[in-house]
Design brief:
Elements: H1 8-19, H2 37-48, E1 53-57, E2 66-72, E3 75-81, E4 87-91, E5 105-107, E6 111-112, E7 119-120, E8 126-128, E9 147-153, E10 156-160, H3 168-171, H4 176-179, E11 188-197, H5 201-208, H6 214-217, H7 222-225, E12 232-237, E13 240-246, E14 268-274, E15 278-282, E16 286-294, E17 300-308, H8 318-342, H9 358-372
Antiparallel strand pairs: 1-10, 2-3, 2-5, 3-4, 4-9, 6-7, 7-8, 9-10, 11-17, 12-13, 13-14, 14-15, 15-16, 16-17
Length: about 375
């Protein structure tokens, strides 16, 4: 890469400087941050192997045996609801010879390895392993699928690969009063997709959590609902960043909504980034979210969805709303993939940021502090 940053050590020194920038002097983090494999390697070890990462919603697996698979930092994961109703995140690797025991999503009484038929219960315990009766020292009880730390937060399923991490509820304690009134745990997912976009994961996080691009990129969609001009700054916290995006003057009050919302909340979308990669547009009547994980330095997996209170909307229907968010995502995807193509340019340098990108400044500061440590 042709730039004024010659080595990875040069880039880490830039992160030290960025971590100490004031908001008024904000710039983007160096474009090399989105293109160098060494950066992703460090992000994996310091962020994705240490932080709470959102995998999806609890209503994706409502019944015992319902499951879906995922992946985090190279670890195949199995998310399953047990016979006791508990949601668990298990390693999706057979304890015999490492084959993934489940694929995709569905419902299963047992998870049977496709290689040698080792079979695991919904709680991860090994139930059957044929032809192991003559193996000296084999103890079936010692061969359960490892269980990872898992917490539910307002209906979202989070996992952490670090057994010593601070509990999620404690980490997000300051976010709680901002979202509690929306009762997200009572919402149900009604549309969404699991997609891979051709851009770095940070580009997608930054895009979701700034209102600057709305008037241009979403001129025919979001700009009509939540105009850029009405955006105002919100909250800065070590664990999250947030801003407010009021609905336009021609927008009707969205129904149904939680009875706990005040008049201002009923006309405002709260845009949240829970570091590192769970982003939400929390509206009075719904939540639009993305669970974001890197898939290589130039690709990102976004598992996105929209959840509501399970009733028809007063001023629209679910089909139209689903179509609307697909349009918004497609508008973003085209632009973000073009950004990824530009980060390797010899002319790419840190750019000055607008006050409308304050959340990006704080996300960049979070990244810089993690990578510079």
């Amino acid at each position: 890469m042709r730039s004024d940053i010659d080595t990875f050590d040069d880039l880490r020194r830039r992160f030290v400087a960025f971590a100490n920038q004031s908001d008024s002097a904000a710039t983007t983090i160096p474009p090399q941050s989105y293109a160098l494999p060494e950066v992703l390697d460090l992000e994996t070890s310091t962020i994705f192997e240490k932080e709470w990462i959102c995998l999806g919603r609890q209503e994706e697996i409502p019944q015992p045996g319902d499951y879906f698979t995922s992946e985090l930092a190279g670890e195949p994961l199995l998310v399953v609801r047990g016979d006791d109703g508990t949601i668990r995140v298990l390693s999706n690797i057979c304890r015999h010879k490492w084959t993934q025991v489940a694929q995709g999503k569905g419902n299963a009484k047992l998870f049977v390895c496709p290689y040698h038929a080792w079979s695991y219960g919904r709680n991860g315990r090994l139930v059957n392993a044929r032809y192991m009766d003559r193996t000296e020292g084999f103890v079936k009880e010692e061969c359960a699928l490892p269980e990872l730390r898992c917490e539910l937060w307002h209906g979202f399923i989070f996992v952490n690969l670090d057994p010593d991490a601070v509990p999620l509820a404690e980490k997000l304690n300051n976010l709680e009063p901002l979202v509690a009134g929306h009762r997200m745990a009572e919402m149900s997912l009604f549309t969404g997709e699991d997609e891979v976009w051709a851009c770095n994961w940070k580009i997608l996080v930054e895009n979701f959590t700034e209102g600057y691009h709305t008037f241009q990129t979403h001129a025919k969609s979001l700009q009509n609902a939540t105009p850029t001009d009405l955006t105002y700054w919100g909250h800065d916290d070590p664990a999250f960043s947030a801003f407010y995006s009021p609905t336009g003057p021609d927008e009707v009050v969205r129904e149904p909504h939680s009875p706990d919302l005040d008049e201002t909340q009923r006309k405002t979308v709260l845009m949240i980034c829970s570091f590192p990669s769970h982003v939400m547009a929390l509206a009075p009547d719904r939540v639009f979210y993305m669970c974001i994980t890197p898939q290589g330095v130039g690709h990102v997996r976004t598992k996105w969805g929209v959840a509501s209170y399970g009733e028809e909307f007063s001023n629209d229907n679910r089909e139209n709303i689903a179509r609307f968010y697909r349009q918004v995502n497609e508008e973003d995807r085209v632009t973000l993939e073009r950004i990824q193509q530009g980060v390797g340019s010899r002319f790419a340098r840190p750019g000055r940021m607008s006050w409308l990108e304050t959340t990006n400044m704080h996300f960049g500061r979070y990244i810089a502090r993690k990578l510079a440590a």
